């Protein structure tokens, strides 16, 4: 009976270690997702600013060239 109890404790210990490893991997993946999300935000912002400038320039051209150095 003591041997069975020891074996069960060993199994539980391994399961707890596996869970800790999985939690660590999840945290690392969440950090990677955050980094990629930040990269996408920067890219999206740069794209939006570029589109804004293009639309602004088109509007200025339609109005006859006033206020060209706004942004």
TrEMBL record:
Keywords, comma-separated and alphabetical: Coiled coil
Superkingdom of the source species: Eukaryota
The keyword Coiled coil is assigned to this record: yes
Coiled coil: 12-46
Record's protein name: Uncharacterized protein
UniProt organism field: Rotaria sordida
Lineage, highest ranks first: Eukaryota, Metazoa, Spiralia, Gnathifera, Rotifera
